[in-house]
Structure formats: C-alpha cells, structure tokens
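Structure tokens please, single chain.
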Amino acid sequence: MNQLFYGDNLDVLRDHVRDETVDLIYLDPPFNSDTNYNVLFKSPTGEEAKAQIEAFEDTWHWNESAERAFDEVINGPHSDASIMLRAMRGALGDNDMMAYLAMMAVRLIELHRVLKPTGALYLHCDPTASHYLKILLDAIFGAEYFQNEIVWHYSGWNAKLNTKFNSRHDVIFYYSKGKEPRFNSYTIPWESEAEYVRVRKQKVNTEKSGKKFVLSDAGGGRRVKRYLHEAMAYGKPVDDVWDIDKINNSSKESLGYQTQKPVALLQRIVAASSNEGDLVLDPFCGCGTTIHASEKMKRQWIGIDVTHLAIALVERRLKEAFSGIVYEVHGVPKDHASARDLAVRDKHEFQKWITATIGAQPYRGGRKGMDRGIDGYMHFRDADRKAQFAVVSVKGGSITPSMVRDLKGTMEREGAALGLFLTLNDPTREMIKEAASAGIYETGGQKISRVQILTAAEILEGRRPQVPFGFSEGFAKATREEDDDAQGSLL
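Here you go.
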C-alpha cells in the first residue's frame, strides 16, 4: 500500500524500507546557508498572511548530529564514500556546508541500498551545493553509473544585472544503480512544422499532389524519402534540457508552497524511469508533487517528511486531487493516546499538527515566547466579501478558564473575528461558560460562536471549527485529477 511517513527520513529508511525494493527515487534536499525554507500562505486579500510557517528550517549546522553522521560514513562499510567525505572535511572544515554533506552522505548510502538493481535516483540540486553532491554521488553510486545532468530551464523576469547573467535553471543529477537501468525513452509532439524544420535542418519539398516530404539520412550515404506528416508523427526525442514552466502565484497548481515543483517535471521523471505499478520514493516530499505525479501515473509510492505541516498538506492535496485514494500514514496521531504522546514529546510539533489538521496556518513568532499567545491563524471572508480571520490557541497540557480569557484578549488585540481554542484535554464547565461569554459572530444570516473549543479527540473524529462561508483554508485547494490514460500528452 502507498505510504506517507512523518519523521526523519534516515530513520524511516532504515526501519521501514527493505533492500532493493524501490524502482525510482526523486529527492530535492534544500540547502542555502542564508535562507529558511518556509511554506508561505496568502490571506484572502492576496497579500502574504501574517503567519510564515517554518516548515523546513535550514538547520544544516555543524553539531552533534552532523558529527554522528560523519562518523557513521567514515566507520561504515562504504570505503569510497568514507574516503571522499574525509577529504571534503579536510578541505571545507566544520561549517554549514560540511554538515549538509555529512547528513546527505549517510542518507544517500541508505537510498542506494533500497534501490533495485534496475533502479534510478534523481537528485534535484541547489546550485550552492550541486558540485559537492555530484562528487558524493560518484563515490556512492560509482562514476560509471552517472547517466545525465538534466537542466530544468524555466522562464521568468529578466532584470539587467551588473555582475552576472540571470539564473533561469536548476540541475537534476540522474544516476542508476546498475548497468541496465529501467529507462523509457519517449518523444514529445513537435509544436509546429516550422519548429521541426528549424531543429532538424531539413529542406521541405513538395510533390505535384501537394504532399510535403523530406529526405532523411538512412546511413551509408543513402537518403530516404519521408512524408512530413509521418516524420513529425514520430515526435521530438527528449534531451537533457527541459523547458517546463515554473510554479508561480497564478499557476493552477500553486498551493502556496515556496519550493513547489510543477507536476509536469515530476511526471517526466516518473515516466522515464518507472512503469505502472513500480515503487517511487521521495524522502523529502514537502508538498507532495512526486507523490501526486506517481499517483496520477499509477505508480506505488512512499513519501517521507520531517514536519507535520508537510504531511497534512500532502494528505489534503491527495484527497482533493484523487477521489477515493487509499494510503497509510505513519508517525502522526491517530487516537487520543498518540496525540498525548506527541504533546509530551514535542509541544511545538503538537501545535503544528493539530492546527494544520483543522486547515489553519500554524504560526510561530520566531523565538520561543514571542508568539504573543498565537499558535495559528485561519482566514475567511464575511458576507460582504471582507477578509476576516480567527486566531488559534493550542494547549497540550493542563488548562484553566484563564487561558480562554487570554484568548479573548488576544482576539481583541489582534482584531480577530473568531478565536479557536484547541486542547488535548477536555474543557471544564467554567471554560465552556467563559467561551460562551464571548458572544456570537453574525454575518449573512449565519450565527457562529466567537470562541470555539475543540479537543484533540473531537478533531481526530472529524470535527472542525464553524467558520462562515468563504472559508479560506491555510492550504490552497489542489486541482482535481480526472481519470485518464493520456499521460503522454502531459510529458
């Protein structure tokens, strides 16, 4: 069964993925020493919402985890990777880049282990680290198994720069596990007769009947006559430079995720290196584009991410795009006991999980203690189409009526129309009374309690806040996928 895992991908790979069981791996591990990788949400006005959710903080710093990863590789059985990583540390020292490479090396070794002999790995690189990653891949997979450096080229606004050219491409390294990888060479349609002539540099002749033809090279100095419509019907073979539009704010696919990749890009990779029923793995699945493409193309899949927010986004995307989809989720609360366990282990992850589950935007105001009593936002429009919002307060421990009073104060300070109090434990009678004293929010004939209390147990059973029509969830709605087999037209 298709599977979605919350957790560290290194642990998930070791505990749940057997040797040589995966047909295709795609990964896009982010690295930029000056950037946090956020999921950005938009308010109903189209502006950036107050909350910027820290979904994948750039935490590649040299610390105990990096040292442990380095030691695992150095003392492990993969001698080539050990030699290469030791040389890199000697050259780079103990800095952020070296921490990233050590953490990636131990994971790439695991990814090599789970690939079938006919399997393939596609690594989407940040330009600040791509040259180092290719050296690591050569050491782990073998330089002889390097197949392609794919250039994903996309359009965009070109500014006049004083010191360099505009950057308009990403790099994707394609490595195979063995000498005979599964690979499906295919073509895409020619856009026009003019494009065919320009690219193929063939002269077009015309018969008396009006039919157009070209003379193609048949080898040995011979030429063969081919009618133009037949020559074009074969299509244009795909090379290693891919012109595919990037996701932007106006894209139908856009979910508001900063590093979201287009489905067309992942469909091309899935089509090239897997067949129907094969298993595709994405260990940094983010907003789930690899999973989306795999499901659409009838592949089995495994997705892994280290944040509850990403898992909630992927689940919502799948359910909206594919009617009746079936899959298993591991590592997220499924009952009150597991919700309590998460709250005890990591209160911030509990906050993000429960807030994202109701469709709100988890929020952390940066440093601990600086969130001003706000754990999330939920945006909606009133009957006059005016943008409104609710503030969310999450409590994973003991609760008192004063906490509901604090939420009411936060609502007044922030100008929020509604307040949502999410709690692990059942509220007392006094808390329910305190919430009721906040009164009713009315718009367009709808009457809604201004302060609503929901427990983790109720949320797990499917209860959601009452919000006016025009409710704008934290995650943009995914495009519904229709059942069809016309995959070739999408590549």
